[in-house]
Design goal:
Elements lengths: L7 E5 L5 E6 L2 H13 L5 E5 L5 E6 L13 H19 L1
Antiparallel strand pairs: 1-2, 2-4, 3-4
């Protein structure tokens, strides 16, 4: 299976309280597995395939989709300078 074929699909109906998350993404599968282990009443594995996909069910109110704004070059430079300053003070 190619990476192009390895999808992540978040699916829910407005009338229902739960969402289904189908994914091949390793980081997301690990995150969902940890969440299911910690909160079994909120997240459960509903399916998995031999080729590596997993499907979890979670309450919709536990999901967020976060879009981040691009960082300006000025802000990036300031962060770089702060990091370099911290590194320099740790070495001393």
């Amino acid at each position: 299976m190619t990476k192009y074929e390895m999808e992540t699909i978040v699916n829910f109906k407005e009338a229902e309280d739960t969402a289904s998350i189908y994914t091949y993404n390793v980081a997301l599968k690990n995150k969902l597995a940890r969440y299911a282990e910690k909160y079994p009443s909120l997240c459960r594995l509903t399916a998995q395939t031999e080729d590596g996909s997993r499907t979890y069910e979670v309450p919709k109110k536990r999901l967020t989709i976060m879009l981040t704004s691009p960082m300006s070059e000025e802000r990036k430079e300031k962060l770089r300078e702060n990091c370099l300053q911290r590194k320099g003070s740790e070495v001393a």
